Structure prediction request, 452 residues.
Amino acid sequence: MKPAAFDYVRAQHLDEALDVLKQQGGEARVIAGGQSLLPMLNMRLAKPAVLVDVMGIPGFGEIRREGDAIVVPAGVRQAKLLARLGLATEQPLLAAALPWVGHYQTRARGTVCGSTAHADPSAEIPLCLVALDGEIRLRSRKKRRSLKASEFFTGMMVTDKAEDELIEAVAFPAAVKGAGYAFREVARRHGDFAIVACAAMATADAIHVAVGAVADRPERRSYPLLEGSALDDALNAFAWELDARDDIHATARLRRDLVRSLGREVIEEALRCRA
Amino acid sequence: MPRLTAGARHRVAFTLNGKPVSLDAEPRLLATDALRQQLGATGTHVGCEHGACGACTIQIDGEPARACLTLAVQLEGRDVRTVEGLAPAADRLSVLQATFRRHHALQCGFCTAGILISLDAFLRTSPNPDEQELREVVGGHLCRCTGYTAIVAAALDAAATLRGEPASSVNRDPVHV
Ligand SMILES: Cc1cc2nc3c(=O)[nH]c(=O)nc-3n(C[C@@H](O)[C@H](O)[C@H](O)COP(=O)(O)OP(=O)(O)OC[C@H]3O[C@@H](n4cnc5c(N)ncnc54)[C@H](O)[C@@H]3O)c2cc1C
Ligand code: FES
Ligand code: FES
Prediction:
């Protein structure tokens, strides 16, 4: 298993990367951590003519706060965000979900924006973006635009990103005062892709719950403070709406069961954790 | 801007286990093949070539990385460490290597280079790990021989030794010499 031939551009400025994407958009691929792209190149599932490495672009490696947003540029590896001082209070959902993104070894290379661009339906970072109503900041030679997570993810490994665009950064809303957050996942082994992953946010008067690995992209629902059988009914309806499919990892029925049970667990935990 | 063209070979220079090395690489050359075939550093093993097994794990600037998911050209200017760089001298094992030996943490040895490299990186930043944390680190590797228990025991023992504590009594004595 060896990749087909490609040119390799080590971009030293954002404009260099954007120029290559403008000239060769459909033929070019951004390479960030390489943890999803290299397997595809090795198996020749992807044969781009040119790779644009964005890891050396100045300013891309530093996480910053912009008001209530935690802004994570394209060069930030997953391990760096997980190791951010105070992350468990700044955004408890990220602190809970990031340890589930692959392994210690893949998090040391893989980036937050790369996972977002890859848009695997079972990936934890896209799920967090959808659960928190985060934002994806896109950039091309022509323009800048910003999309809500629910607009960005459009299908199974498909996004609204155009061929000449790259993700400059993603922005996660920091924890809201008085809100609680929780994350749960079921996988065959820790580090494997999720069979079902659930994230919840609870405030004084609302519950938001997002589910990954069932539909073709993470999906979110918002409810008033439901309890007891009303909550069960809401989660049951959500589980059916996700239109689960049988595959080699799990049956549709197991996935629906997990949405109902994990969904309840994350909601109860988020309600309990409200600070 | 440095654009490395597909068909041609390009000079790549980096540090391998403390020594400067260089080689000529097409952009598509994987770091595994660069190390093994061009530099003859065959301690890094190749299993799945898609990131799943961990046999090829190396350290790049002190952080663990799958060499099969790394291009040789991405090593330019980096500080690379492989299993060949772990022992302090040709006739001395590192603390971690010695506990692996003591605990029988390897059988065929195919997975061992990658696991040693991961644990070496992890113990440097987490000198006081618990068993659960070590299981998660080792969880990034496949070992078809040992069942992992001895690997985790060896890692706990190495961590204690590196902290300067008296080594654990568990499995301390060599079973055979
Ligand atoms: C063994 C193993 C287990 C894994 N387990 C999990 C898991 O449990 N959960 C999980 O979520 N992931 C998992 N992953 C994938 C994760 O590790 C990757 O890091 C992530 O999916 C992609 O991030 P990357 O930086 O490595 O991107 P790359 O592999 O470099 O790129 C991935 C894709 O995104 C595009 N891209 C990257 N950055 C940008 C950008 N800034 N703008 C536009 N496009 C961009 C690339 O062109 C490519 O199409 C696993 C990987 C491995 C090898
Ligand atoms: S050969 Fe690299 S992870 Fe298996
Ligand atoms: S010792 Fe044989 S695979 Fe681990």
Q: What stands out?
A: The interface with chain B takes residues 1-12, 16, 34-35, 38-39, 41-43, 49, 51, 53, 79, 99, 102-106, 108-109, 189-191 of chain A (CB under 8 Å). Chain A has eleven helices and 14 strands. The CA atoms of residues 25 and 163 of chain A lie 5 Å apart. Residues A 29-37, 54, 74, 101-102, 106, 110-111, 113-115, 117-118, 120, 123-125, 166-167, 191, 193; B 51-52 surround flavin-adenine dinucleotide (ligand 1) (CB under 6 Å).
